Amino acid sequence: MKTRRQMLENCIVRGSLLAGATTLSNTQLLAFWEQGEANAHKPTSTEVLGPFYRKGAPNNTTLRINGEPGFPLRVDGKVVNTKGQKVHGVKIEMWQADYKGLYDVEGYRYRTKLEVADASSYSIETILPGHYDDRPAQHLHYLITAPGHKTLITQAYFATDPFFDGDPDKNFKKRNIVASRELVRPVALYEGPGPSRASIQFDICLETL
Ligand SMILES: [Fe+2]
Asked: Please, is 67 exposed, middle or buried when counting C-beta atoms within 10 Å of its C-beta (0-12, 13-18, 19+)?
């Protein structure tokens, strides 16, 4: 199988890659392309770890507890590095408040440590977290590790959260809680057949060491 670089070199040889600058040498074109690739995937913004992190969560993709209140939420995402490559050996820890805004600090309710298969994608069935006074935007905490990559601590937020007053573009800086606009994710609502649920896509981009 050809590497992406070999494929690119073939394109250059066949003259099918036109950078709009025919005076560039092949080496310059390669450098130009590689720089573009490097910039194509921005590392996910970091956030604070917060006081409610607990080690030792089980590997569990379903955090929703049957019969417990809370609006169902599905989170999907993929993990790549800044070159857009799949990352192997990824471990994703995710923890969140329950529907009342409370963290389980004695057990592992609404906490997981996923071992992501080489497909580099993950999904979690959970509930929308509640609000709590210290950080009144709904959020999911993440700690992500992978061999050869920088550990990432971040959080996902919800564009539908009343905290953003219907306009996350304008209000994401409110009270200095959210580090970066892209962490506020659009929320899709699924309304049957079957139980309603919300879903977000939270992709993760890790920096290589
Ligand atoms: Fe929190």
From this structure: exposed
CATH number, position 135: 2.60.130.10
| Residue labelled with tokens 């580090």 | 179
pTM exceeds 0.85 for this model:
no
Nearest-angstrom CA–CA distance, 183 and 134: 19
Domain count, the chain: 2
Q: Say if residue 35 is in the same domain as residue 81.
A: no
Q: What is the pLDDT of residues 16-41, one digit of tens each?
A: 444 444 455 666 666 656 655 555 68
For residue 165, the CA-to-ligand 1 centroid distance in Å is 20
Q: How far is the CA of 36 from the centre of ligand 1 (A)?
A: 35
Rounded to 5°, the CA angle 113-196-91 comes to: 10
